[in-house]
Input
Amino acid sequence: MKPIPALLPEAVELEPRDTNEWLPEFTPSADILELAVPQHVTGPGYYGLPMLKRPTWGWQIALYFFFEGISSASYLIASLATLFGEGRFREVSRAGHYVSFGALVPCAPLLIADLGAPKRFHHMLRVFKPSSPMNLGAWSLLGFSLPVTLQAAEMLTEEIEPPRWLARIAARLPDRLAAVFGIPFAIIMAGYPGVLLSMTSTPIWTRSRFLGALLACESIKNGAAATDMAIALTRENRAAVYEHDKLDSIRTLAAAGEAALLGAYVITTGQAARPLTKGSQAWTFWLGAIGAGIVAPAIIGMSGIGERKRKRGLRDLFTKHSRRMNLAAKLASSALSLAGGLALKWAITHGGQESALDDDATRIASRATESNPGWNPA
Amino acid sequence: MIEELLSPFERPEPPAQHAAMGFFTDTTVCIGCKACEVACKQWNQLPADGFHWTGNSYDNTIALSDTTWRHVAFVEQFDGGADQPGRWLMMSDVCKHCAAAPCQEACPTGSLIYNEFGDVYIQQDICNGCGYCIAACPFGVIARSAVDGHAHKCTLCYDRQKDGLEPACAKACPTDSIQFGPLEELREKARQRVARLHESGRTDAYLYGAEPAGEYSALNAFFLLTDHPSVYNLPEAPRRPKAHLRTNLLLSIGAALGLAAGSALLFARGD
Output
């Protein structure tokens, strides 16, 4: 570029602008621009260009789904322990309510950070529209945060000497009522993320009807694992880990459900599941969600390490492990489950990016069927 | 500040309902002049997208976006062999203004509404940029602006319609490929056009979106096409995401309830 003659003292030399560099500031369709190259001309579609727009949801939403799942599930487990345990599982209720509160804290900031106009988060509560899963989720999050906070505060009042006025209020609050009030919210919170994703046009999310159920099971697995970990990590409660294996059983039950639904989800999604099975999320999916989340904890469980001593059995011959070893096994399988849970939510959320830009997948997903014939040349 | 927080909760009286208005885009008379693109950009004060040569025929606009609300697609079909005359397909694409729009069904803030002309409209003072409509649209129409963070798409020139004017693209179209009017009238006109084309031997002409099909509603901006929809980058049979909501929701709540019941049993059994 020729320097501009210095007619004015403040005249500066202009750098030639690279359109590719400044375009993204103007339009989010930059990724579509990138795909618009003549090599694609001979495809069955329109120059190989994507039919859909990329979802705007990234790491914030993946992390939000992870945390809100833990929060709702550990609340659910803690409340059920209170309601049905007849006082036998105090440490489950206690740890569960703390975990639930702790996991709830990052939820709203993550959701706000994801918005295009973060100052307008409260617009979500402008209408009550449960037919929009996102609106349902926003209302549930609001309704859920009240019992979670109350329960965590009540647990706290039992531990520290609260100011007398606070103790008086806490004593008046029936904890069973709070538990019952929060359970419906917890059930919705555990189940809605997958439903939210499936009410879109992104092939990887919409082809299967099992996505909601899959993420619900996965959330409950995470909640049980996080609560178990919290108990095992608290010194004074550690003994309780060996008194019963309720949380282990819940986690195993949820993981079994998750494994079955994951299979159903991948099969029914078919070719559109490619980002998970072969594409950009393959490592996260196979190593993280399946390897760490399902297979590894199952192996640890089957090995018998970390299991509480059952009444006497053959297995006792092989499981004379030290207490420390048992604790390590317990922590490892909980941590692996959690890591797998995060990996699954991460892979499914981010898989939508690749899926929406895959014009083949979109074309196959919107093919005419008998019940949905669409509009075609005669 | 407080006013700013509360104003979205106000519910002003909606304007009186008007007859449903829409677009009929007849691709057989489109000459690919892009006057609609220019008129749309000019009237709606949309910024330029830069100069970018794609090499895809004359289509350098590429796709609809937050700053492009009309997009002319160019299809060159010249590979049928020496005895086959080649042909050009040109189509001015736009928001379909679906009669039951997935974007409107997904919108969690109520920003996406049907205005008094029966068209799908994003209220810019409400939209908080959650991005649900972008993922919901089966046609890839909506995009979020990196400048203001809100979702944008064709308004069917709501402001012009309020003043009794036709949308800028329809006004500018020199061949009347883009026609604007009351939907019933437009549909009738479109059917007659297809019949006339069939009579003259162009039996490949058909209407895309004039009637509901399967789970998907009719489109208030419908098209006359002469090839398979995917040739124009349109879905053959768009799915209505909400049609599957109940099953998905029931299954997910069922799974959570089942595991809750299992947990309750475990806790009740004691030890």
